[in-house]
Design goal:
CATH class: Alpha Beta
Number of strands: 13
Structural class: alpha/beta
Largest sheet: 9 strands, mixed
Distance between the termini: 25 Å
Radius of gyration: 18 Å
Order of helices and strands: EEEHEHEEEHEHEHEHEEEHHH
Strand content: 15-25%
Shape: globular
Number of helices: 9
Number of domains: 1
Strand order of the largest sheet: 5-4-1-8-9-10-11-12-13
CATH superfamily: Ribokinase
Bound molecules: adenosine-5'-triphosphate, magnesium ion
Length: 320
């Protein structure tokens, strides 16, 4: 495989999961954690699990939550030299309560946590120069400082012909952050590989037209090279332009026991991007990413469902 170094940057946090369904946050209940989390961290760990070079940029506080996160990432093989430990704020946290298998509520402490202090000045440009690809999560665009750092990082990676992937990862709890909306459009402009969920596609229509195929058409004609739409238990689809025509392929979701959906999208994206950049075909990258997502939902904890190439191949061969 080609040796490509994939970086990502953004929120590093620990997560606490409600033990019982319908527990909510309005009365005392049991929570399990801390689990290392943050969409970029899960993505980076999945890239490393597949044995590709993975570099993560961000901030944690000078506390055990931060140390837990860094130690786990290091253990996974992620290059953690771009993670700064700061004294000004504690490590970010998220509390998650499941209403059912699909609907979750979150309480986030991110913009005011250590990762909210990450700025362009924390970026290790030497380390960034070693990366040929940057993956951006929309959930990371939560502060003007982080957005600034993101712009700088995209500029550096693009300046040496690197590529950009983008997962909007929109959380309803975060959409009221004023900088976020504009930043989503900014990142989209530089995106080569776009990896939204089915429900997020219409958000990126330039008109009132929310028909999925129209939005896909528009985005591909605006220069995005690959669009991969995640459809949860229904699977995923890939679209690109081939001689001016849309070429598409689809995979249906693999049967799996759903224990915890958090992280599926991140593992899916990491697997798709890693394999595509390593030279796998779009069809094969999509099938492997689909298996990686199915494996992710069957483990409890955001970063506990990572899979190796062998696990993915075993799942795929058992379903044929
Ligand atoms: P999130 O809401 O956490 O950001 P997402 O929308 O980014 O999630 P999903 O569509 O939930 O991502 O999951 C990503 C991929 O993982 C799906 O496209 C599919 O390939 C796989 N997957 C997710 N849930 C299931 C499931 N219940 N059964 C089988 N495969 C699944
Ligand atoms: Mg997601």
């Amino acid at each position: 495989a080609m040796s490509v170094n994939i970086c990502t940057m953004g929120e590093l946090l620990v997560e606490f999961l409600s033990r019982n369904p319908n527990q909510g946050f309005t009365q005392p209940g049991e929570f399990i954690g801390p689990y290392p989390s943050g969409a970029p961290a899960i993505f980076a760990a999945q890239v490393a699990r597949l044995d590709y070079k993975s570099t993560l940029f961000g901030c944690v506080g000078n506390d055990d939550f931060g140390r837990l996160n860094i130690e786990r990432l290091r253990h996974e093989g992620v290059i953690t030299d771009g993670i700064t430990i700061i004294d000004q704020a504690p490590t970010g946290t998220a509390f998650v309560s499941y209403r059912n298998q699909i609907d979750r509520d979150f309480i986030f402490n991110i913009p005011n946590s250590a990762c909210g202090h990450f700025t362009a000045k924390h970026l290790d440009i030497g380390l960034l120069n070693q990366c040929q690809h940057i993956h951006i999560m929309g959930s990371s665009l939560f502060s003007f400082r982080m957005i600034d750092a993101m712009r700088k990082a995209i500029e550096v990676v693009k300046s040496h012909n690197g590529t950009v992937s983008f997962d909007p990862n929109i959380r309803k709890e975060m959409l009221n952050i004023p900088e976020m909306e504009q930043a989503l459009d900014y990142v989209l402009e530089y995106t080569d590989i776009f990896i939204p969920s089915e429900g997020e596609v219409s958000h990126f229509s330039s008109s009132q037209d929310h028909c999925e195929s129209d939005v896909v058409n528009e985005l591909l004609n605006n220069g995005i090279k690959h669009i991969v739409i995640k459809r949860g238990s229904k699977g995923a689809s890939h679209y690109r332009l081939c001689n001016g025509e849309i070429s598409e392929c689809h995979v249906s979701g693999l049967a799996t026991r759903v224990v915890d959906p958090t992280g599926a999208g991140d593992c899916f994206g990491a697997t798709f991007v890693s394999l595509l950049l390593a030279g796998y075909s779009e069809e094969k990258s999509l099938a492997y990413a689909n298996a990686s997502g199915a494996l992710a939902v069957s483990s409890r904890g955001p970063m506990e469902g990572l899979s190796s190439l062998t696990q993915i191949e075993n799942l795929l061969s058992s379903t044929h």
